[in-house]
Amino acid sequence: MSEIQNSSIFSLDEISDEEMNSLIDGTVTDFDEGDLVNGTVVKIERDEVLVDIGYKSEGVIPARELSIRKDVNPAEVISLGEDVEALVLQKEDKEGRLVLSKKRAEYERAWKAVEDKFNAGETVEGEVIEVVKGGLILDIGLRGFLPASLVDLRRVKDLGAFMGTRIEARVIEMDRNRNNVVLSRRIVLEEARKAERQDILGKLQVGMKLKGTVSSIVEFGAFVDLGGIDGLVHISELSWNHVNHPSEVVKVGQEVEVQVLDVDLNRERISLGLKQTSEDPWRVLVSKYPVDAIIEGTVTKLVTFGA
């Protein structure tokens, strides 16, 4: 064996720990805080998940850094052998491991996706994961806040009823410095209602008879819901007889048949008539009692100008 060959043969026992670490460091990629890394889940524990990222030691993802949802069980959100992307939070903990965050890596990508939808005026969809003071928290890849006043068209008494449901909403505010995303479901509902109103208005014709439900009663008449849009039955169009107040003829929630009297497309107003769905008693009277006919009747009231 030549002298050169002999010089290339050595024992691991002859290498110091410092030299060994130097050799390892020379073959392993270095990472900095804020870097995105990819790895494979090699161990799942109650409080953390270990990930092989090809570093000198395994990376650790604390349970709180797995998901934007609170108090998650690691085994429910990640699987052994799963490939994951994570963000480097800390180069070394007390055990010399890289501290990683799966949720923050997902957050970075989700923020860009949500921001694109925000700029394009598109909607986002997510599951309601929390009911908090003043509104709901949606999982849209990041935590989106939906204020209680923007959950529905009308005030919602029980926000808890939305827990676990999927909601489509519009992003109305984004603040990266505060990691704040504000959503509105009401805008989406209003736009849908407007489209529905336009569709209904376009199909209505004077003289049509429709069925609807009395939605509210006011001094001058009653509003009838025609299935997405309300029309007004003026007090004078409620009955062929004199009416002192609309409540004498209809009540809220009552199903009624009405006739379309007028449609104003520009103002989106519909005038309806209830009495037109029944026969005009005066016309019946005229046909039954022609002019010059002699009839018998009972005096019901005396006034200064007649009886």
From TrEMBL:
GO terms for cellular component: cytosolic small ribosomal subunit. One of its GO terms (molecular function) is structural constituent of ribosome. Residues 34-103, 121-186, 207-275 form the S1 motif domain. The keyword Ribonucleoprotein applies. InterPro entries: NA-bd_OB-fold (IPR012340), Ribos_protein_bS1-like (IPR050437), Ribosomal_protein_S1-like (IPR035104), S1_domain (IPR003029). It comes from Lancefieldella parvula. The keyword Ribonucleoprotein applies. PROSITE patterns: S1. This is S1 RNA-binding domain-containing protein. GO terms for biological process: translation.
